[in-house]
Amino acid sequence: MPEGDTIRRLAATIEHRFLGQAVTSCVFRHPALATASLADLCLESADARGKHLLIRFSDGRTLHIHLLMQGRVTFRRASDVPDWRRRFEIAFESGVMTGIDVPKIELIKTSTEAQILDFLGPDLCGSYDHAVATERLRSAKDRPLSEALLDQRLIAGFGNIYAVETPFICGISPFQTVETIEDINRVVAVGAALIRTNARRGPQRTTGQNRVPGDHWVLSNDRRRCLICGSKVRRYRGEQTPWRRRTAVCPTCQAISDKRTVDQARVRHLLRSHPALTILDLDDATLSVSTVEPVEVERIG
Ligand SMILES: [Zn+2]
How far is ligand 1, taken at its centre, from the CA of residue 262, in Å? Predict the structure, then answer.
């Protein structure tokens, strides 16, 4: 599922494979780009802003892509996928990049990127200002926590996995309203530490394990009982939540109350095998490393 860390890693992979290479052929199957061509242009860079992918070319244009829930980018011809689902195929000297079921794609002037993406909140995987992110989230007041975390105008980069797993790790219900969480900055710090760590190292996991289903605490469909207290996990389909995404909650660990704070001992326990804990300053409710620079992806793949 494309979240901020997925897109940051995808941008790094595109650069790793094709940086400086010329486009040898290009096909778009999207109404807005039916006649567009990138042939002979060089790939100058690939970048991410929240969940937006930006692929820049040598003529001063950027391919701006958003995968939403269903889109994906693969590095093969994908001839087993019907033509109409292959929304773009861009071949470089050393390989091909295929966009499957990509719903949002446009060519923009590179100089207008900042203006077009100005609505986004602080980018969790970019040059990230934790104080600003926290203030923006706090302004959500009476909105449920997961709905606020998913609002890219407040903070850019949270997707559904982190919007469900972060509240679980903190011991707070995703339905708890933001204004009733006394240390909302601590919730954001936990999510930011997870996402930045997973973007840097991969894979996208919230426990210390890499294997499915052990890589997530509560969201996996086969997780019937809470791993912490043994209660039956309560599941919601997308249409059953205000934020229109599937959700899982432990009714015991994440009980709703008038005022909630992050259970710091629980966070330390649940993240004890995850490297995110090493960049998380729970006492100060922030990150213990500089976030001025965007995450540098260490392991491509
Ligand atoms: Zn529980």
Answer: 14
